[in-house]
Inverse folding.
């Protein structure tokens, strides 16, 4: 079903930068229809990891059928998803429009909720600036050493050499991204607390957040907007590093309107989204916000605690 659906879609936008075609010179490429089908099929199984999909291609029946018993490298899948992110979003938005047109999607009432997702990075990756700079220098030195060895040893396996260089290059890129994130956080923290700021060297965007079990973990704030009618289709997804949901409601509405082309009329959310600013913003946009209102004592609790 997924293969036949992708067969009917206009995927010309995905092949604009292709430089290799059948019957001509150049390395063969996987067709966009196949890569999209594999990603979508993975989503139906609850699998979004490109590495996991690559491992499953040797035994999972649906993936074996789609790929014709071949295996697609996880780098190819993840690079395609990152490189064509905007085009894929447009493609999925078209699916939502078709579902609504066929009466399968009801956008009259939407549900908004968020949850904190623990990052893959461990606490040992959470470092201050001097340690990150030290690791970056070591990674760059390792890259130079690999280049030197490759120049001296002509017999070295090309695939092994490329894999080693790619691993070191990716490590350098992660360290540089961590330093950029460090500079931004230190600027916000100020001179007094700036030196104490820590950033994960493996996932620079992750923030330390408190979870419902009372523990603190490197995490992301994942927010989803779904239809309230039959099917409960996801119509908007957002990820941020904000520790709470108060500032995320307006952005969620913008995503939904972009994906569906429809203005939101009624939105149901939990108490995490309730604030004076959000209520006023919803009134200005003509959205009926259904959410539990905090009693006066509860709304003042935070301010009272801060001021002892």
């Amino acid at each position: 079903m997924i293969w036949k659906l992708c067969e009917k879609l206009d995927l010309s936008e995905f092949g604009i930068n292709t430089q290799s075609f059948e019957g001509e010179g150049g390395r063969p490429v996987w067709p966009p229809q196949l890569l999209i089908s594999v990603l979508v099929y993975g989503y139906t199984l609850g699998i979004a990891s490109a590495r996991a999909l690559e491992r499953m291609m040797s035994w999972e029946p649906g993936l074996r059928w789609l790929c014709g018993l071949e295996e697609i490298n996880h780098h190819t899948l993840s690079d395609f998803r990152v490189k064509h992110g905007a085009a894929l979003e447009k493609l999925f938005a078209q699916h939502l429009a078709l579902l609504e047109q066929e009466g399968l999607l009801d956008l009259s009432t939407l549900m908004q909720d968020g949850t904190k997702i623990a990052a893959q990075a461990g606490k040992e990756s959470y470092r201050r600036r001097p340690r990150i700079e030290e690791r970056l220098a070591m990674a760059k030195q390792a890259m130079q050493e690999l280049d030197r060895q490759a120049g001296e040893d002509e017999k070295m396996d090309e695939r092994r050499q490329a894999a080693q260089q790619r691993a070191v290059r990716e490590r350098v890129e992660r360290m540089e991204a961590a330093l950029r994130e460090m500079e931004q956080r230190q600027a916000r923290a100020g001179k007094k607390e700036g030196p104490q700021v820590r950033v994960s060297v493996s996932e620079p965007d992750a923030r330390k957040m408190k979870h419902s079990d009372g523990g603190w973990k490197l995490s992301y704030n994942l927010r989803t907007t779904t239809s309230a009618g039959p099917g409960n289709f996801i119509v908007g997804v957002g990820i941020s590093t904000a520790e709470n949901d108060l500032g995320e409601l307006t952005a969620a509405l913008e995503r939904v309107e972009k994906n569906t082309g429809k203005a939101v009329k009624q939105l149901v959310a939990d108490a995490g989204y309730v604030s004076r600013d959000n209520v006023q913003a919803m009134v200005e946009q003509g959205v009926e916000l259904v959410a539990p209102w905090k009693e006066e004592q509860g709304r003042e609790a935070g301010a009272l605690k801060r001021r002892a």
Notes: The first strand starts at residue 109 and ends at 118. The chain has a mean pLDDT of 81.
